[in-house]
Structures are given as structure tokens and as C-alpha cells.
Amino acid sequence: MNINSDIFKIQSNNVLPSRGKILISEPFLRDATFGRSVILLIDHTNEGSMGLVINKQLPLFLNDIIMEFKYLDEIPLYKGGPIATDTLFYLHTLSDIPGAIPISKELYLNGDFDEIKKYILQGNKISECIRFFLGYSGWDSEQLSNEIRENTWLVSEEEKSYLMKNDIKDMWRKALEKLGSKYETWSRFPQVPTLN
Description:
Blueprint: E1 22-25, E2 38-45, E3 48-53, E4 57-61, H1 62-65, E5 76-79, E6 83-92, E7 101-104, E8 107-109, H2 113-121, E9 130-140, H3 143-149, E10 153-156, H4 160-164, H5 171-177, H6 181-186
Parallel strand pairs: 5-9
Antiparallel strand pairs: 1-2, 1-10, 2-3, 3-9, 4-5, 6-8, 6-9, 7-8
């Protein structure tokens, strides 16, 4: 039996991408990094776009790579994307970190890592306050716009509290459901419809 999966394709919600917005992957995108992903856009310009996949945890902890954190509680690491996977990025809510880049209301990227380390080693809260990523996702100048036109991504907005929460298991489905009943239906489709 041949199933035309185009009938299940998500149609764009016509929201334009910009820094601080999220990308929600279409239900049938079969890709280890981007399938069922939610990506926070860090930047979107004419030159290209950059984002961090926020709902894919790695089987590795920050404590494994930063020796000063060895004896602290496990600090999760997330797969930010397939580019520069040996580079650490951190999203946080700490407005007083020198050099941090504002992404959206009360949400910042990177900044002085020594200050972040000091904050953590002083026993301050990490959960829902700082999230660490290896790698990032990137698109050339027109690439993301083309993928949005091809309905690979929906663009939406999310609150800082949602983006920083630890419970990432249903993040993709919940992000779709918030867009309304049409999208909520898609959130229940199996990733590979022919296996249903």
C-alpha cells in the first residue's frame, strides 16, 4: 500500500523567523538531529541563521568535560546541533554575566564562562536557569526561509520558562498543540506513518 505522506504535511503558520522565536519540525522529518525538534533561534539575518536544538539531551554531562564540576550533581548537556559539536554554548537567565547576548526577554546566550563557573561552584541554582549545549544548528542565507516555505518548520514564540524547563520529553508535541487544533492533530501522528 502506497501512502502519500504529503497529505499529512504541515502548512506554514506564516510567522516570520527572528531571534528568540522557535522552530518546530514537521511531524515526519526523519533526521536524528532535527526530527521532532524544537530549536531556539539565536540569530536570523540576511547572511544566515543560527539556533540551538533545545529538546535533545546528550548521554553525557557537563561534569564529564569540566573537571571542576566533577563532584557536583549531574549537569545535563544538550545537542545544540550538528555544527561545531566540540564547542560549548550556554543559554541562561543571568542578566549580570558580562558579554552575554540577549536572545529574548530574560534569556541570554554565553558570556563570561568564568562567571558562569563561579555561579555554579557557589552552589547556585542551575535547573531552569542555565542550559548547556554542544554544537549549534546553522543555515546559509536563504536556506531557512526555503525550508520554512517547504513546510519543514513552523515558527512560533515561547516563554523563557518553557524553553528552560527540564522536562523535554513532550516539548515538541506541546509546542505544536499550543498552535491550535490543526497542529495539535499533527502532534499525534507517528513519525513514520507507514509503520502505524
